[in-house]
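Problem statement: downstream parser choked on a complex file, so we are re-checking the raw output for the zinc ion run. The parser issue turned out to be on our end (a line-ending mismatch), but while we're here, posting the original submission so the record is complete.
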Amino acid sequence: MTIKQNKVAILAGEGLPDYSQITAKQIEEHIPSLLKELSSRFNRLENQIEEELKSKNSFTWDNLMTPLHEIGERLRWSWGVVGHLNGVCNSAELRDVYASQQPEIIRFYNLVGQSKSLYKALSKLNELNRNSLNNVQHRIIEAELLSMRQRGVGLESKKKEKFNSNSERLAELSTQFSNNVLDATKEWSLLLTNKCDLEGIPNRVLEVLANSAKNSKDYSYTIGNEPTSEKGPWLLGLDMPTYISIITYAKNRSLREQIYKAYISRASSGRTNNKKIIEEILTLRGNQANLLGYKSWADVSLANKMAKDIHEVEALLEELRTASIIAARKEIKQLQQVAIKHKAEEGKQLKPWDINYWSEIVKQERFRLNQEMLRPWFPLPQVLKGLFSLSERLFSISIKPAHEDYPKWHKDVQLFNVLDSNGFKLASFYLDPYSRPATKRSGAWMDECLIKDSSNKNNNINPVAYLICNQTPPVGNTPSLMSFEEVETLFHEFGHGLQHMLTTIDYPQAAGINNVEWDAVELPSQFMENWCLDPLTIKDIAKHWETGDPLPEEELEKLKLNQTFNSGLSTLRQIHFALTDIRLHSQWDKSHGVTPDELRRELAKTTTVIQPIPEDQFLCAFSHIFAGGYAAGYYSYKWAEVLSADAYSAFEEIDKNNENKLKKLGLRFRETILSLGGSKHPSEIYESFRGRPANTKALIRHLGL
Ligand SMILES: [Zn+2]
C-alpha cells in the first residue's frame, strides 16, 4: 500500500492517511475549503439534475450515484481521519478544531440530504431502471430515499420549516440533557474520614478515593497531612467506577443506600432537572414522526431496522421476559438466603442497594473467581495468535503483520494484512491495543479507514479497518496481560472488522457494515465473543506468558460459571430498559395525563423483581435514548444477541473437532453474513446462513435461563 504523496495530508482523499502530517492547524485551514469545493460540486450536480428533469430524465447509476458517492467519500475520508485522530490522539487543539468544524459538516450533510432535485432524480433512477439495475443497486437507492424522507426532503415549505426548527430544538435538548447528567454526577460528593465506613472496599479503590480527596479543590491539607489510602480522608463521587465499587464491595449498608439513592436520582431535581426536557423531547419526536407521516417515533426508528414493527420487537422482548423473570426471582431469593445465613439484617428484606453486594458474596462463595489473577494466562501476542488461528480454521484466511512501510499515529500501533487461502491480500487492519488515558477515548471500537470499492475496475480499493482497544499496556519485559473481559472485547471488535474486511460487495455504499440495519450490525461481533470459551480456542489463546502452561481446568470452569451468573437479573434489567424505551416512543402522549416516569413504573410491575423506589428517577439519566442514538432502538442489543447466539448454535450442533465440518460451516458464515454486508435485507442473509429464521432458544440456553 503506498502513501499518496499530497502536499496537504488531510486532503489526500485516498490511500492510508499520513497521520503524522495532519495537524489541528491543517484541519482548520483545509476542511472549510474542502467543504466549499464539495458544495460547489454538489451544486453543479444539482444543476445537471435539473436539466435532466426538464428533458429526458435519463438518469443512470454512473451519472448520478457515482458522482454523489465521490463527493460523500471525499468528505468521509478527510473528516473520518479527523474523527479518528480526535479519538486516539486527542489534544485541546484537536478537540477545539473538531468542535468548531462540526456544525459546517452537519450543514453540508443537510444540504445534500434535503435536496429536492436529488430526491426526484433518485426516485426516477429507481423507477425507470427496474431492469437495468441489479437488486443491490436498488436497495442502495431505496435506503438513500428513505433516509432523505426521514430528513424531511418531502415536506412542503411550512412543514419543512417546522421540521427543521424542531430538529434544531431536539439537538439542543439532547445536549442539555447530557450536560445535566454530567453536572448532576459531578455535583455530588461525600468525604469520609473514618476507615471503618469503608470496610470491604479494595485497596486500589481506596487509593483512588484518597487521591480524589487530595486533588479536590474543595478541601485543603497541610503538608505531611495529605490524604492516603491508609489514613484517608476519602472522597466519593458518582462516577461509574466509584459507584460500582461502593455498591459492590461496601459492607456498610447505609453507605450503599446513600450512594444508591444519589446515583439513581441524578438529574431529577433542582438546576439539573431533566423531567421537563424528557417530556419535550418525546413530544417533539412525536411531532416529527407525524410530520413525516408516521404514527410514532418508534415507527420512524423501525422503518430502517431489521425488526419489522413494534409488535415484532415486543414479541421478542416478551419471550425473553418470561424466560428471565422466573430465574431473576430465584436469584433474588438466593441472595436473601445467603444474607440470612450470614445473619445480616438484609435477610429480612433485600433492598435495591443490596443486590450487587450480596451477588459478589454469593459469587465468591460459589466459585472464587479472581479475574485479576488470570491475566498472566492472556498475554496479547498469544491471544492474537489464537484469534488468528481460529480465523484461519473458520474462514480460511491468514493474518500476517505488515512488513511494508506504513503510516501510524502512535508507536504501539500495528498494521496486519488479511490474506486468502492463496496468499492473495484481501484487506488490512490497524490494531491500537493499549490504553492512553490522557489522549485516547475510553472504550473499544472498530471504524472504517478505507472501504472496499471494486466498482472501478482500474482502481480496486481493499478495505482497511481500525481496531481500537483500551487494554493494559505492557510494562518493561512483561507483555500486555489481558483480563478475560479484554479478550472478549478484542474478539468483539475483530468480529466487526471481519465484516468490514471480508465483504465481497463491490459497491462501497453496501460493502461491509454500510447499509446494514443497525439492529443486525452487532451480529458478527457478538458471534465472535462466543468463541472465547470454546475449548479449542481457549487452549490456543490462554498460555501463561512465562511458563507456557495452559489455563487450569478449574479456572476455565469458573469463567464459564461467571458467564451465566445472575443472568436472569441482568437480562430482565435490559428488557425493562428496552420495553420502556419502545413504549415511551410509541404510546406516551402528554395529553394522556401520565408522566413518563409513571409509564415506566407501570411497566416495572412485570419487568422488575424489586420495584423501583420513589427516589429512582432512572429516566432522567437514560442518556442512550435521550442524548444518544438509541431512541426506540435500545432493544437492538437484545435483538443482535438473539441472532449471534442462534448463529453460534449452528456451530454447537456440529462436531467442532471435525475440521472439515467446521471449515464448511465457517465458510458458509463467511460467504453470507461476513460477505454480503448491506446488499440484502439481514433476514434474507441470515436465513441463507442458517436455513431458517433466528429464534431465542440458543440465547436462553446460553444464559442458563
Ligand atoms: Zn459492537
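For whoever reads this later: DSSP finds 26 helices and seven strands in the chain.
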